[in-house]
Amino acid sequence: MLTHPQSKKTQASTSYHYQIGDVVWYLHETRKVGVNPKFEKAYDGPYPLTAKLSEINFTTQYN
Questions:
Q1: What pLDDT score was predicted for residue 12?
Q2: How many CB atoms lie within 10 A of CB 33?
Q3: Lesser CB count within 10 Å: N end or C end of the chain?
Q4: What confidence score (pLDDT) does residue 22 get?
Q5: Nearest 5°: phi and psi at 25?
Q6: H-type helices in 1-63, by residue range?
């Protein structure tokens, strides 16, 4: 009987634990009307993490 390896998505997914002081990029999830997404910036940053609110929520410092 042949067994199938784990899917690539399962193998590639990792969890990362951020700490205060790490620098992160901010993802723009909304798009502007009338602007081609190809020419629009997808990310802003990098911004340092300043405070940990929970295991997955942090605040960042915008300059």
A1: 61
A2: 5
A3: N
A4: 94
A5: -105, 140
A6: 8-12
Choose among 38, 37, 58: nearest CA to 48. 58
Q: What is the distance, to the nearest Å, from the Cα of residue 56 to the centroid of all Cα atoms in its chain?
A: 11
Copy the structure tokens of residue 24.
């992160």
- Residue 56, pLDDT score: 87
Per domain, the residue ranges of the chain are: 17-60
Rounded Cα distance, 7 and 9, in Å: 5
**For every one of its 63 residues, what pLDDT tens digit does the chain have, with 9 covering 90 and above?**
556 566 666 566 677 889 999 999 999 888 888 888 888 888 999 999 999 999 889 999 987
Beta strands per DSSP E along the chain: 23-27, 43-52, 58-60
